[in-house]
Each structure stands twice: as structure tokens, then as C-alpha cells.
Amino acid sequence: MPRATKPLAPAATDPSRIRNFCIIAHIDHGKSTLADRMLGITGVVSDRDMRAQYLDRMELERERGITIKSQAVRMPWEVDGQAYVLDMIDTPGHVDFTYEVSRSLAACEGAILLVDAAQGIEAQTLANLYLALENDLEIIPVLNKIDLPAADPDKYAEELAQLIGGDPADVLRVSGKTGQGVEELLDRVVERIPAPVGDPDAPARALIFDSVYDAYRGVVTYVRMVDGRLNPRERIQMMSTKATHDILEIGVSSPEPTPSKGLAVGEVGYLITGVKDVRQSKVGDTVTTAAKPATQALPGYTDPLPMVFSGIYPIDGGDYPDLRDALDKLKLEDAALQYEPETSVALGFGFRCGFLGLLHLEIVTERLRREFDLDIITTAPSVVYEVTTEDRKTVTVTNPSEYPSGKIDRVTEPIVAASILAPKDYVGTIMDLCQSRRGTMRSMDYLGQDRVELKYTLPLGEIVFDFFDQLKSRTQGYASLDYEPAGEQEADLVKVDILLQGETVDAFSAIVHKDKAYAYGTMMATRLRELIPRQQFEVPIQAAIGARIIARENIRAMRKDVLAKCYGGDITRKRKLLEKQKEGKKRMKMVGRVEVPQEAFIAALSGDVESKK
Amino acid sequence: MPSALPIADPAPADGALPVSAGEGSGQRDLGVYLHVPFCRVRCGYCDFNTYTADEIRGVRQSDYADQALAEVALARRVLDAAGAGGRELATVFVGGGTPTLLPVEDLARLLAGIRDAWGLRPGAEVTTEANPDSVDRDSLARLAEAGVTRVSFGMQSAVPHVLGTLDRTHDPERVPLVVGWAREAGLQVSLDLIYGTPGESAEDWRVSLDAALALEPDHVSAYALIVEEGTALARRIARGELPAPDDDLVADLYEFADARLAAAGYRWYEVSNWARDDGDGGRARRSRHNLAYWTGQDWWGIGPGAHSHVGGVRWWNVKHPAAYAQRLAAGLSPAAGRETLDEATRATETVLLGSRLADGLEIATLSAPARARVAELIADELVDPRAALAGRLVPTLRGRLLADAIVRRLVD
To answer: Taking the model in full, what pTM does it have?
Structure first.
């Protein structure tokens, strides 16, 4: 039986009975499982309806076990016979979504810091913890997965206490899986997290902390009321754009959307206005009423800036319109996604897309493949370079093809402040990696007995190219990485082109550090030699900086491509073979006269090289 | 090309052909292919439609001649009805399987039946395949008496370990004997060779070629070993017991063979076939039956799994000897499926088949885009420039090895 028997009604709840909190956790540390357990224990989801990771709505989210878009849910609770409302705001767990995380945090008074009792805290969690502390949130440290045999709660309670102050004995120990300790945790939320404070009589101000596109209902805007109240059918105004909309529906999630008589101070809920594009309802913006608008917006709205760029191309050129439609649809729910049409000699028509980071890129491409059933190729990720030519013209380059020809005076590249957390045994190998990626170490701190936090300044361009994979494989998966933009620096960069039979394959061009140009050229040439099947003529593969060839490989001409015999007059068999060969040819892109299989582009760009045949 | 993979139409129960199949039949040769679907053992590389004694329950080899003769009778009726009959046969080819596993009397009876049905043109070519260990002096003489003019021996190699890998059971020493006996009987001799067998060295191949040439055959076929899916050989390669054939090595072996054969006075006329030049460029010794396949003539394939072509209609018989026997016993056509070629498919086939020939392909018959690509093929040294200027597309030595690529470039 759930503990709360009489839930408090929305728009009629005293703020002192409200607790708004979020859960800060690393991917895999069990946030969603714990959230599910809370939904069960508070009775908002019956056991029958419970499915794993209830709040992670997108298929991709559930599959990867990570939360991409945040959600909020209102749960009833009772302590000492007193009813409370617990608003749990689910936050994205990844650094790419820092901006969204910070808006979610701004909607809360407290945070549960959830850490896997077998693994300890991770770099991304640290970053979000810093954000939470910056927002003056009350932190409740919790160790999860204490049912695991590998759990070492004493060790990690110590680590947490060291990190945020306090007594290791105060660190709660729960199991989202078994439910152990979860009721105590909810009691602790009521006890420790401050109630929201706001002026019920002031003009309405509500912070948008999430904005989600729903195919049936249009944009669903999640808000945290700060002052005043919002009512059904009221006309609202977005303070950044002054645009007005009528509220078609207002309510709370528990966790299914439930219309209410409004939202009052301190409450968390949703608005539906019929707008179809999340850009009209931006995360971080302040909602007020058109009739009695507030004069001052709540702090902090910035447009998120893309950090990483990549070309996305349909494998079948005929899918280009479908790709455009799919991107248009994704944009409705992902304001951070940017794209514009682009043409590649090698890949045809596609889009240059900007992303918040690598995970964002990965998620978008994965959704294009899965939800829109598109076969796509992505080009090597690039960052934003400022290139100044000798005649003092500065060009912003997000795509190697935009790199100016001729003499270059200077190039600047974005840099990031990276924090890497790992067991101390891996410090050497991590330092080697960062060194090889032109990193500068800023600090190294012990976190408890055997874990180390390394802080590096690194060029973002070095991180976007398989840095994370390298880090993971060199540390058996133990290291975690977080980074944030840290300005830019001048660097000795050059553009390396890859030529097939003398023709530049634009998709393979890359901007790399001068010292690495040779390595990049050799690597790509070698990969392509492995990946491109032999043709009826010899195909030279060259890597070049401008007109200077820095690496060369050769694909020898194919010598035999004939079926020796005729099968006793069975001509159909020969024709079937021809048809099969022609089908294979359709999957080829022509670069000049060279037939390059789609797979070769994908494999060369992803580094996933298996030798042909 | 609009038509994709050939989609078989059901073949009518009586095997009747559309009238279109008879149109212009006077301009085409008519041949008969007789399939003998029996072998003593199945060779590891072979995926032909053939059966060893244990594989064909309930069907006796001794009944086969009667069944095949029943199809001959059907063929005669069907061709006549379509207006495609009334032609003496230009060629007969008995293949397998191992035709010489049938008693000579049966083969003689079959040839007589075929001859009775249509008659033979003067100088008609009548070939039988034979394994060196399934014929002797006497049987070869009797085959000649029965009307055979040409025998094609499955020599494959002269090197014991290569023959072993191919599961060939004959003693290489026997080949000169059977060739001699065939000559005595007045038969023309062709030798079939296979190269590119796993484990075969360039030297092995030279030994085999020299052994074949020492016998001065009229004709040589040399086929690169194809590892067919589902064969024992494919499984052995998949298991790593044998290396897969290497295309570069195979190309070397082909070039070596072509040079050796040319030096010995043989001229290629099809990618895998060479004929001895008796001052006529080798024309007289070419296998006319083989050429009929490449030049779109008419032939009727008798026997289980046999393929036929008459005037743009292709069909194929049921594969299993038991099913074949049942159909004929019930008075039905043994055809399993057929297709009527449309214009586009015919055009594709013309390129597919003609581009393998020394006589080449008439460039004027190609589509305009294909004609435009001939210059590229010349530039890539795949097509002989002089022949092309004279209006024929003939592959160069390099082009023969890349014939399938030539075809793809012409039919796209």
C-alpha cells in the first residue's frame, strides 16, 4: 500500500508541502531503476503498469539505459501523517546536455547524488554535482546497488563524504532494484530539501526546463512555477520572444499527463499550447501571462552552441528528401540540432549538421537510422576553426572543404577543459593518451585512496576523433571523461586531402595538426587500400597537403573477373550472376572512375576496417 | 535493363512452344544436348546435376535410355508443332555426368533415336564426353560406329596430387592410351583441363599443359576451377583444409596457358576454349556445339536438369532422375520452368555471350550508350582496337580475364 492516501491537488498545494528534486547520476549507476522504484512505492504507477525505466520514453533511451530528454513526475508522499508532493525532475546524464541539465537543476531545490556502490563517482557526475552546488541545491548523497556482490559501500561512502563534506554514516544506502532503503530516501527528501519559495501574488513566472515534441499533441513544455500562477485557457507570453500562445492544456505528470486547474508557486507541471516546434518554447525561457506580464525574466537563457560538426548523407541519393524531413522532425524536439544542406563530390547531397557534442551526434544519427529507417553515412566529426589567410581575411571553418586555399597566416581551434577520473593505476596510460592528443595537464588530485582526477586542457578537435574510445580501451572501461569549452588557441593546423586516382575525395579531408598530418594521411591511405576493391586499372591513393603528396598507396589492378565455364547451356545462371554483380555495383559510389563501396566510406570514416575479401 | 532476375513461367504440361519460337528457325542451327546424369563417384568440386548409384533410389540406369528416347519423341512433336522442326541436326553433344557409364549399346540406341527423329546434317558434329577410365579401345570403336565423331576427355590434370584434390580417379598414364584409341577409331579428340586447383603450382600446370599438348589434341578446353557453393570442395576450403584459389595466380596460369597453346598452334575462340590451327585459324576444330550456346542457336536439352533454348524461349527440366522418369511415363513434358526472353534480356544475353568470343560481338548491334563505352574499353586495353575499328568487339588477353567486367560496362 502506498503511504500517501490523500494526494494534494495541483494549484491548491501550499509550497511548504512541496519538494522539488532531481537525481544526479552517471550513466549505468541506476538512476532510472531508482526512479521506477519511487513511482511504484508512491503508488503513481501500479506494479502492473510498471515497465523498466518508465520515464525513459524513447526506445533509444531505454535501450542505451540513458536519459536523453528529461521528464518530471509528481508523486504523493506522507511523513508523520502530513501529506507532501514530491516532484522528481529527471535530468539528462551526459555532458553534451549540460545546458539542459543546468535548467533542470534550476527547477529544483535539492538533488539526490546517486553513485554506484561498486564503482564510485564518475567525471560526468562530478560535473553535474558542481552545477548543483552552484545552484545552491541541497545534496543528498546516496549509494545505489548495494545488493551487488561487488558493492563496497563503506569505501564509497567515505569518498562521497570527502567530496561534499559530512559524515560517511549519513550517506544513504539503497537498492533501486530491490527497493531497499528507498522509503527512507523519500523521507530524507522531505526532511532535508527546502520547500520552494515564491510570491503567489506577483505576476506569473515559470521556468521552462524542458520542451518535448509529441507527435499527437505538439510541443509539451515542462515548467517550474516560481511566482504567481497559471490557469487553464490563459494566454501566456514567452519572455525572450514576446510570442503569445493560448494554453490548451495545463497539468502535472504522475507520470501520465493529468490536466489540472492550474499550477501555483513551487509546482512543476506541463503546458500544451498547440505550437509544433520546440524552438517556440525554448528551454531556459520564462513563461508569464499576456494579461499581467512579469517585467524581469528568470535568470539565464542562452542558445546552446554546436561544438561538433559532421556531414550526414543518405547512402541512397534518392533518400535525400526523406533525410531532410527526418531532420526537420528531429529539430522539432531538439532545439540544439542545427543543419544546412551541403554537397559532397563523393557522397552527393546531404546536410552539414552541428551538435552539442559527440554523444549528441551519435544519438541523432542513431535516431535517423532507427526511427526514420534511413541508411546514412556521417563524415569525420569536425570542430569550428577560425582560419586567417595572409591577406588578413578570417574564415570560420566547420568543414574541411571550407578551408581556404593559399597561404594561411594563423588558425585557431577550440579547446576544452577536460576532467578524467580513473583508478590510479591508469594514470600513466591516460597521460600518454592526452599527451598524444596535444593535451596540457592542469592538475591531478586524489579522490579517496585509489582514484585520481586528472585535469587537462585539450583541443576539442582531438577529442572528437575516437578519444573516448581510446580512453575506455586503455583503462578497461574504468576512466570517465567530462569536458567543457575553455576558449580557443592558435595551433599549427593543416588540411590533409585524400586523393583517389588524382581526385580529391572531399569526405576524407581533415584538418589536423601538422605533426599528425603524415600519420593521418598514411592511416587513411592504408585503410582505403584495404577497403576499396581492386578495379580494372591501378588506383593510386594519395594523401596531400595542398599540392604536396605526403603518403601514397596503390590498389593493384584486378586481373581476373570472368566465369570460366558455361553450365551446360544454362545461360540463366550466367545472367543471374550478372544481375547479382550489377546489384553490387549499385551500392558503389563513383569517385572519378573508381567504384567505391558505400561500406568503404563508412568503414574508412569510422575506422572500422576489415580487409576486403 | 528492365527485366531483373529471370522469373520462370510455368512450363505447359505438354511442353508446347509459342509460335514465336519457330520464327526464323531456318536461319538457326538446331542441336541436341543429351544429359547423362550418372557418375561412379561425385568429384568434390562438381555441382552439376549428376547422381551416384546410392543417390538415386528406385531409378535404374538401365531404364534411362528409354526415358530419354521418350523425351526425344516429345521434342520432335513439340518442335514440329511450333514450326521449329524440319531441320537436320548440326550438332549433338552427350554430356554429364559420365556418359560413358551407360553401356555403349544404350548410347548407340540413343544416338540412333536422335538421328531418326531429325536426321544429321552432312558433317554434323557428334561429341561425347568421356572419362579416361570409363572407356577402352573397344568401346571407343563402337561409339565411332554409332555415329560419334568427337570425344572430349576429362583429363583435368596430369599431376597425381592435383587429380587427387579434384577426386578424379583415373591414372594419368591412361590418357595417352585412350587418346590413341580414339584416333584409331577416327574420332576427333578434345582434352578438358582444370587449372587453379588448390595446391596446384605453376609448374604443375605447365606439366599438365605439356602433357596435353604432347598428345596433339584437336581441341583443348581449360577451365579455371570454380569453387561452387555447397560442394565438398567449398566445405574443405571453408574449414581451412585447402587454400582458396587466388585470382592473381589463376590469371597468371591463364596467361601462361594461352601463350603455351598459341605457341603450339592452338587459337582461342572462346574464353576457355582453344582449337588447333590447321591453316584455317582453328575454325574447323572448334566445338560447334559449344559455340551454339554462345551464339544463340537452338538446342534441345534431353535429360534431367537439361537446359534448352529455341527461338528466344529457354526452359529447363526437372532435376531428379526419378521425377524426370515419372513425368515422361505419364506422357508429360519434363520441363520444370521456362522463360520467354524479352528484347532487353535478349540484348543483354547477346553481350554476355558474344563478348567472350574471338569472333566477337557486332558493335553495330549494341545500344548507343554501350557503343560510346567501347572507346573506354579500348583505352583500358580490354578490347582489341583493330577489331573494334572493323566493327567487332573482341576482348584482348587482359579483356578475356575481365570479360565479366566488360559485360557490366556494356549493359549498364
So the answer is: 0.66
Q: Which residue, B256, B272, B294, sits at the end of a domain?
A: B294
Please report, for chain B, how many H helices and E strands are present, in that order.
Answer: 15, 14
* Residues B289, B346 share a domain: no
Can you give the residue range of the structural domain that contains B274?
19-294
**What residues of B are in contact with residue A565 (Cβ under 8 Å)?**
223, 226, 272
CB contact under 8 A, A559 and B248: yes
The two beta strands, B150-156 and B120-130, are parallel
Residues of chain A found within 8 Å of residue B251, distances taken between Cβ atoms: 559-560
| Interchain CB distance below 8 Å, A570 and B316 | yes
Check B405 against A558: CB less than 8 A apart: yes
Which among B48, B223, B250 is the nearest to A560, CB-wise? B250
**ipTM of the modeled complex:** 0.85
Nearest CA in chain A to B94: A568
Tens place of pLDDT per residue across chain B (412 aa): 333 344 567 889 999 999 899 999 999 999 999 999 998 888 888 888 888 876 666 778 889 999 999 999 999 999 999 999 999 999 999 998 899 999 999 999 999 999 999 999 999 999 999 999 999 999 999 999 999 999 999 999 999 999 999 999 899 999 999 999 999 999 999 999 999 999 999 999 999 999 999 999 999 999 999 999 889 999 999 999 999 989 999 999 999 999 999 999 999 999 999 999 999 999 999 999 999 999 999 999 999 999 999 999 999 999 999 999 999 999 999 999 999 999 999 999 999 999 999 999 999 999 988 998 898 899 888 999 889 988 999 999 999 999 999 999 998 7
Distance CA B21, CA B78 (A): 11
CB-nearest to B314 from A536, A571, A578 is A571
Q: Exposed, middle or buried, B301 (CB in 10 Å: 0-12/13-18/19+)?
A: buried
- Quick one: closest CA in A to B299, which residue? A569
User: How far does the CA of residue B50 sit from the closest CA of chain A (Å)?
Assistant: 12
- Whether B159 and B255 map to the same domain: the answer is yes
**Contact call for residues A378 and A361 (beta carbons, < 8 A):** yes
Residues in chain A: 613
